[in-house]
Amino acid sequence: MPLAQPLTLLALASYEKGHRFLQEAKRQGARVLLLTSESLRHTAHWPMDAIDEIVYMPDVEKKWNRQHTLNTVAYLARREQFDRLVPLDDFDLEMAAFLREHLRIPGMGETTTRYFRDKLAMRMKAQTAALSIPQFVHVLNHQKVHEFTERVPPPWVLKPRFLAGAIGIHKVGTAEELWRHINGLGDEQSYYLVEQFIPGEICHVDSIVDHDQILFAVPSRYGRPPLEVSQGGGIFTTRLAERGSPVAQGLLRQNQLVLSALGLKRGVSHTEFIVAQADGKIYFLETSARVGGAHISDLVETATGINLWAEWAKVELAGGDGSYAVPPSRTDSAGLLVSLAQQERPDTTSYQDPEIVWRMDKRHHVGLIVRSPSYERVGELLDEYARRVKVDFSAVLPPRALPSD
Ligand SMILES: Nc1ncnc2c1ncn2[C@@H]1O[C@H](COP(=O)(O)OP(=O)(O)O)[C@@H](O)[C@H]1O
Ligand SMILES: [Mg+2]
Q1: Which one of 122, 132, 133, 157 would you pick to mutate in the ligand 1 pocket, going by the greatest count of ligand atoms within 8 A of its CB?
Q2: What is the CATH number of domain 200-401?
Q3: Which entry of 6, 60, 90, 368 is 20 to 30 Å from 145 by CA?
Q4: 326 lines ligand 1 (CB under 6 A)
């Protein structure tokens, strides 16, 4: 339904993403402004027919100066009345919250944003809500870190609080190794936490939320754990969990607990869990208030017909007025495979199963999505393709290209 009164939406995108969000916002009748990185000016292919105005921020490796960004947005606000301010990339969340607070624009503020960006804040909040989480400690007080290593058996992971795509994560087996890494961090230490490594299957739930209610949620299971793929190289896969299976139900339950404990009022979320190998217990790994990285939205759309980016635009524009409803969805199963390829233009024409519904068009990458009513068939195809892709194309996938980020 078109908006009764056109709203003005400012999207922040330090990286190029969220085309479907911008297109849907325009389709809904909004005035759409995009603030993006100067370094993308000549390379990004933004859907210009959906954008009324594009403004570039000078950046150093996609990072913007806070004060300069505020100045730019305040300057724009002399002639625009921003009704919505939406971060399209994970790294834009804090900036968006900071600007909303300053300009008094509705939406998630700085306190809640922390729980969806800062891995330490999400751990601490989850702990107070008695969710199952790996034991953890902030790398701040060394005595506390020592106590942790005495109390919690290794291996542990040392991880940055604010990064994604498994960047900067170290899995360590001894206290000596841990301290070597910690000491090497110098003044960066307080930006890290250490947690217990829990062997298991890494899963994710991708949700749409409005009025503090999860209106749509799809549980999926990664193939090999993202940490292994990003650091050991290899093929990334994920697929929808079997509908109604105990794992799917458990993931949906935990997802509900996490999002309500952390306070997501509306929007979308990509939340990850570990299903422990030892006993099947589900641990909360991390969450975010954004669409899952790279092609998870294509996977979800393939299986359900729901595009998370487009729905997010509708939820944001509705702004909690009660008018948003999720469209009817399908219940197919689907799987996604992504690998870096040695060949610049890898040729996948010999991959011919009728279940292939999408192929990635990106240099030095192979990516496929398969769809079937049968969960088992999707698994078979992914296993087979993972084997074949390894032989035909395989190279190591760089972390930022990981769909799990
Ligand atoms: N406590 C843990 N136990 C087991 N594996 C973990 C743990 N923490 C992280 N990992 C591994 O590292 C990956 C990335 O960690 P995560 O916390 O999701 O950060 P990122 O934002 O980089 O994705 C996970 O997908 C998983 O493979
Ligand atoms: Mg992750």
Answers
A1: 157
A2: 3.30.470.20
A3: 90
A4: no
Q: Does domain 135-196 have CATH number 3.30.1490.20?
A: yes
Distance in Å, CA 227 to ligand 1 centroid: 6
CA–CA distances in Å: residue 168 to residues 119, 201, 298 = 13, 21, 27
Question: How far is the first Cα of the chain from the last one, in angstroms, to the nearest whole number?
Answer: 33
The two structure tokens encoding residue 68: 């300069």
Does ligand 1 have an atom closer than 6 angstroms to the CB of 134?
yes
Mean pLDDT, consecutive 10-residue segments, the chain of 405 residues? Answer: 77 97 98 98 98 98 98 98 97 97 96 98 98 98 98 98 93 98 98 98 98 98 95 92 98 98 98 98 98 93 98 97 96 96 93 97 95 98 95 68 49
pLDDT at residue 404, as a whole number: 46
The Cα 369–Cα 37 span in angstroms is 30
CB atoms within 10 A of CB 228: 16
Mutate to test the pocket of ligand 1, among 202, 277, 284 (most ligand atoms within 8 A of CB): 202
Q: How many residues does the structure list for the chain?
A: 405
Rounded distance between C-alpha atoms, residue 76 and residue 405, angstroms: 31
Domain boundaries, the chain: 8-107, 135-196, 200-401
| Class at the top of the CATH hierarchy for domain 8-107 | alpha beta
Site to probe by mutation for ligand 1, drawn from 227, 275, 282, 287 as the one with most ligand atoms within 8 Å of Cβ, is 227
Nearest protein CA to atom 22 of ligand 1, as residue: 166
